[in-house]
Amino acid sequence: MGVISPIATDANGNPVDTGSMQTLGKDDFLKLLVAKLTNQDPLDPIEDEAFVADLAQFSTLEQMQNINNSLQNSLDWDYLQMQTINNTMATSLIGKKVHASFNNIYLDEDNTPQISFNTTEYAESVNIRIMSSDGTVVRTLTMEEAPAGTNSIPWDGRDESGQRVPQGYYTIEVSAVDASGESFTPSTFVEGKVTGVVYRDGSAYLHINGLEIPLADVTSIYDADYETEG
Known about the structure:
alpha+beta
């Protein structure tokens, strides 16, 4: 498939850039070929070799477009099929215990999300920054003297001034300082029973401990009565 650039001229007849591109498709190619045959010089007609070459170009262009359309249809179908499988699998996790990494939480009208994190060592202090979609910090939570292992802290859904923030997704950043004053980054995760599934923009999110966790963030799945180690 060829590409042509439209040509325009100014008042003096000089070419100017139109700033756009147009695609030459097989229909355009066929129109050009017909126009070429219609307006050929009767005293100097198109040679058979040139006509065959033009037809071969048209055939190749058509085949390439058909292949491209077939590939695109196949990709669309594969994506739809994979999305359907994932969404179906998500419902089978209801009642299961899962472990998932995450860096965002979903706040609805009345929930109080529990923000869990894991440290490999004792932390003198832990700061959790909660940010809106535009990167604005709406709240900073602090935990003093956090032991090594699994810890969690609730967020009441309010900003620094005590106002309840709008429902939606918020990004979480966790940082910590050890006993010697060195900074390190704890890992964030959530672990609990899946109590429901919600679909947003075609993707499945699991309800776990008041959070909405993307299905893709799940790292482990257990029976509901299985005891995991923090």
